[in-house]
Design brief:
Chain lengths: 286, 161
């Protein structure tokens, strides 16, 4: 249970980091909460480890126009307690309570969770739900990726070996939007078997705007656009009749934690719970 | 690649130095190079919590850090809590409530409790269990650990048990 030998680099600027990544077998380490276990098991054996924890400017959460820009080195615990998140995106703190345990949340990073791209992880689901934009720096400059172009398959993204995920931008939603995150895991802190997240804006008793996304329901997090379209303009009671079809067309994976059939059975239940909680939290006056 | 690198850090309030290969885990460095053996090594995959330390002020798994990452850091291990003959309140509560049997997991629990007492309300036993869920204990069944933490929370909040 010891990692194989590697060369360790600790760049102090992003240019130094790109230079360090110009190596046939380099791997970035941020929080290391997924990478180091994989290295200890020798499932991953990088020849060079590029530690980006000393890079400036990646650990901040700032308001930028209509979005909140979260640096990729922000830790789960920092995101959960940050005032901007608590005021504008309370779903973040709700979701972070499901991310592993206290010590892991203190160290694990948002950028690390996104590039690790576990299909059951919380951050990929949140960014998918909220139409976040992923900011990626490379030797040629900065590019932005939407979640549907970023996540490809379990543990696979479109980020290149010489690129660094530097931030994610999440939009600030309309005032009064209710948000909810829920998941089923085998034990507290385990990866979700299935997770669901929703946002709902109500207008005079009907659902005006709605988003619904699932984790653990396929190779990558999914937005249920058809369900959203079916719910828009309906009274909340429609959630009962529409959510049973939520698993239609989805192909959940089968693994040691759950059968595909069990995941399929959880999807409508968790979708309903997330939507109902979001409706309850939506501004009641509208 | 196997050449050792110099590491200088503040360990339990004292400036210390050591040398390690890049691949050496912080947990092994703390025990085998810095000779602070209170930090225990259990699973080496970030699951059991026995190796929990404070890294720059917050609890972290030392088996998921490399020794090289401790350079310039402020680290506290279980030895920072108190001298062996002068237990601190957390240790006293663990002793009073029989919150340990074999003691292997105890350093990690003590470090976790030292943080969560400062950061979380811990107003229900459910919340205490959730906050402790990253530390595994194979002896106690956790009940006595929860009682010890409940006692500490009551002391903190001025509640008569």
């Amino acid at each position: 249970m010891k990692p194989s030998p590697f060369e360790y680099c600790q760049p102090k600027t992003i240019e130094e980091a790109f230079a360090a990544l110009n190596h046939e077998d380099a791997k970035i380490i941020a929080g290391g909460q997924s990478l180091v276990p994989m290295m200890n098991f020798r499932l991953v054996q990088p020849g060079r480890l590029v530690d980006i924890n000393s890079l400036p400017g990646l650990g901040e959460i700032v308001l930028d126009g209509g979005t909140i820009r979260i640096g990729s080195l922000v830790r789960h615990a920092e995101a959960a307690r940050h005032d901007l998140m608590r005021n504008h995106l309370p779903i973040i703190a709700e979701a972070m309570a499901h991310v592993a345990h206290v010590a892991i949340r203190n160290r694990g990073t948002i950028g690390g969770s996104l590039v690790h791209a576990d299909p059951s992880a919380e951050w990929p689901l949140l960014v998918t739900l909220l139409d976040g934009q992923i900011e990626i720096a490379g030797p040629e400059g900065l590019r932005h990726a939407a979640p549907e172009e970023f996540f490809v398959a379990p543990l696979v993204t479109t980020i290149e070996d010489d690129e660094i995920l530097v931030a994610v931008r999440l939009p600030i939603l309309s005032p009064g939007t209710g948000m909810a995150f829920t998941e089923i895991a085998q034990r507290a802190g385990d990866f979700a078997v299935v997770a669901a997240a929703a946002t709902v804006l109500m207008d005079r008793g009907v659902i005006a705007e709605v988003r619904l996304a699932l984790g653990g329901a396929g190779d990558v997090p999914v937005r249920l656009f058809e369900v959203e379209a079916a719910l828009a303009g309906q009274r909340p009671e429609a959630i009962d009749s529409i959510t049973p079809g939520c698993a239609d067309g989805l192909e959940p994976n089968e693994d040691m934690h759950a059968t595909a059939e069990y995941r399929r059975s959880l999807i409508p239940v968790l979708a309903r719970r997330a939507l109902e909680a979001a409706v309850l939290r939506a501004g009641a006056t509208r | 690649m196997n050449a050792k690198i110099d590491i200088a850090l503040t360990l339990n309030g004292e400036a210390v130095t050591g040398r390690a290969e890049p691949r050496m885990l912080a947990s092994d460095f703390i025990r085998d190079v810095l000779l602070m053996t209170g930090t225990h090594v259990g699973c080496e995959q970030g699951v059991c919590g026995a190796c929990t330390i404070r890294f720059n002020g917050v609890v972290a798994r030392s088996c998921l850090l490399f020794a090289a990452q401790l350079d310039g850091a402020v680290v506290e291990t279980v030895e920072s809590l108190a001298a062996p003959q002068d237990l601190n309140d957390i240790q006293k509560a663990f002793r009073k409530h029989h919150a340990l049997q074999c003691g292997f997991c105890t350093p990690g629990f003590l470090m976790t409790v030292s943080e969560i007492l400062q950061t979380l309300p811990l107003s229900t036993d459910h919340e205490i269990r959730d906050a402790l869920s990253g530390n595994l204990c194979r002896c106690t069944g956790y009940e006595h650990i929860v009682r010890a933490v409940r006692d500490l929370v009551n002391q903190r909040d001025g509640v008569q048990a």
